[in-house]
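Q: Could you predict the 3D structure of Putative oxidoreductase?
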Amino acid sequence: MAIGFIGLGNLGAAIAKRLTSMGEEVIVWNRTKAKAEAKGFVCESSPKALLEKCDTVLMCLFDSDGVRNVLTMENGLLSANLKGKTIIDLSTNHFNDVIEFHAMVKKQGGNYLESPVLGSVVPASKGELTAVCAGKEGTFLTCKPLLEKFASTIFHLKEAGFAAKMKLINNLCLGSFMATIAECTALGEACGINKKELLEILGAGGGKSLVLAAKTQKLIDEDFSPHFSTSAITKDLHCLQDLAYSLNRPLYTASVTKELFSKMKMMGKGDEDFSSIYQLFKA
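A: Sure. Here are the predicted structure tokens for Putative oxidoreductase:
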């Protein structure tokens, strides 16, 4: 049976294309049908119509508001008969909202797997994402073979909400590393060090990381076409602040990092790749 997919942003489109390349029949729903068809997908008329043709639907949306809308809109997913159906949510959700999504789908007789992914467009296209899942073990085990088509590393934290929290914590590392690497790059250039050599040395030294490996060429070329946008990391770090507040804990490096990306967004750079924060330090 075909796999349903909702959310054809940069990451979502890469995952959907990866599934197609792995032999899965993928059909989609997208608000702009022409956009989906331009990317080579068959587009259904509504989320409900999509779910009626698929036992499993994956969502990869920008935020929890988008997920809630797809679930509850007219002819949304929750208006379909969910018995025997599974929704795999790859979105980075707010940790409170995702608890509601588990309950909403369960109430309608369906299965919901919270499964945010770590990684961006390039690892998605190679099947090298990391998936962090939360939900019933039976649902997880049923979904795992499908997840393995685009994720090489998969974790199951079981308790609802834990995957969302882990994704936010991971993105503190992601945003902090990117900001530090960008500042180091700009500082080194100000000293007169060749940028390519500088990044090579950082990659062999204290800057060695998945972030630097993924963003070195973007920094060299100053090509900030989006894989993971500034708007997305800003949103995630805001959610992380909510998480810390709920635990009555301060955030130090996260607060500074969030404000740096917020400044980039305010400057009109929200749709650029988050590595474009380099421009803030180079200015």
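Q: Anything worth pointing out?
A: The mean pLDDT is 97.
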